[in-house]
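Record type: monomer structure entry
Structure origin: computed from sequence
Chain ID: A
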Amino acid sequence: MRSLHDFCRWMHGRRPVAFVVILALLVTACGRQQTSEQTSGMNPLLPAPLGTAWGFIDNRGKIIIPPRFEAAQPYSEGLAAVKREGRWGYIDRNGSEVIPIRYRTVQSFRNGVAIVDTGLPDHPVGLIDASGSWVTQPLFRSLSAADGPDGLLLGQKEPAEGFGFYDRSGNLVLGPYFLAFPFAQGRARVKKGVREGFDDWLIDTSGTFLPRKSLVLDGIRFSEGLIAVRQDRKLGYMDLEGNISIEPHYDQGGEFAEGLAAVQLEGHWMFIDKAGAVTAEFPAGIAFAEPLSDGLSLVSADRDQSGRKFGYVDRNGHWAIKPSWDDAEPFHEGLAHVGTWKDGKAAYIDHKGRTIWQGRNPSP
């Protein structure tokens, strides 16, 4: 079950310069990899390896769309990306191909549009709508969408130009910058360039640089009105106006989600609220904790001689599911995708750790 989620988890704790451009292009997917179908009243359909191919099951484990794809992504806004003969396209909830399977890579639909890579030389990447029509022509080498239906697109047309923010017609609105990350909550993190010493700054949607005092940005984007910052190597949180909301005190910390953030101090993980108060302490032995999702935090822990395993902690700091999986993803709509490496086992489990469906990942 090697996936973008694994890369996101790996990158969260390690941000080497060599990977920072890749991170800029993938940060949207890392933060919003799974999108909900519940708002439309539809029961979720889940991608699952079924024998030698991928199909889709419901949340009870019943096969709804038979396996016939090389790979598949979760449904988003009624469409799922699927791969066949090395190319990607989209199917509807009946399994019918509604956007031709012809793209090199694709992202899930958000706010009615999706980023696709045509595989053409020079400028392969653009934006399509749910009919497959171009919203933004393939003018870019790379492209990432902001939160919100009318957000600016973060893109790069030529390597020498750096990264800029564009409207949906492909016109440059802000920038370019040496490096930039997508807007979230009206703020974006950018790196000016050589003359400015490669410092990180926050800008608003007008391009105005916001004060950050002596703080060093640690988080990639704002979440629930706060972003992680560092001062004298300690981590705290800053609000949208550039004021310190939670004093730098911790060694590590993630984004706020469901009102809490997981932070680490002297090797011990805990939850804090937006006032900075500790609300719960994690069990001992946690190596890393992700933001809450569906009421549970995905954590990794060292388990005797068996190596690092993944499990889940609830918002009260108690084990909901003890570490037993070699790989795992956050909970979404009541289920989580987990797996083991030795036997290639893949499964969906519920909040109590009960297996809803079990299979094996197809060989690559």
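Annotation 1: The chain is about 5% helix and 45% strand.
Annotation 2: Residues 68 and 294 are 30 Å apart (CA to CA).
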